[in-house]
Amino acid sequence: MTSLIKVQGDLTRFFDRPVATALAAFTLLVWVWPLARSLRRHLARRAPATPPA
């Protein structure tokens, strides 16, 4: 919270340095990857099998 006050609410200031941007991207990947994998599996189970033509 103190950091947001110091940068006056500008969230882009947290990504000024390349290392911070890389860490943020990695963190998002770690959070999103399991969700995306689970969603793909769920959708694959729901998809009806297509009959051969």
Q: Approximately what portion of the residues adopt beta-strand conformation?
A: under 5%
Describe the global form.
rod-shaped
The residue-averaged pLDDT reads 86
Tell me the domain tally: 1
Structural class, by secondary structure, is mainly alpha
Q: pLDDT below 50 for ≥5 consecutive residues: which ranges?
A: none
Portion of residues within helices: 55-70%
Helix-strand pattern = HH
Largest sheet: none
The radius of gyration computed from the alpha-carbon positions, rounded to a whole number of angstroms, is 20 Å
Number of strand elements: 0
Assembly form of the protein: single chain
- Terminal CA distance reads 60 Å
Helix count from the secondary structure assignment: 2
Description:
By secondary structure, the protein is mainly alpha-helical. It has one domain. The chain is 64% helix and 0% strand. It is rod-shaped and about 65 Å long. The model has no long low-confidence stretch (mean pLDDT 86).
Using brief descriptors, characterize the structure shown.
mainly alpha, rod-shaped, 53 residues
Give the structure's gist in a few sentences.
The protein is mostly helical and 53 residues long.
Layout of helices and strands, plus pairs?
Elements: H1 2-6, H2 18-46
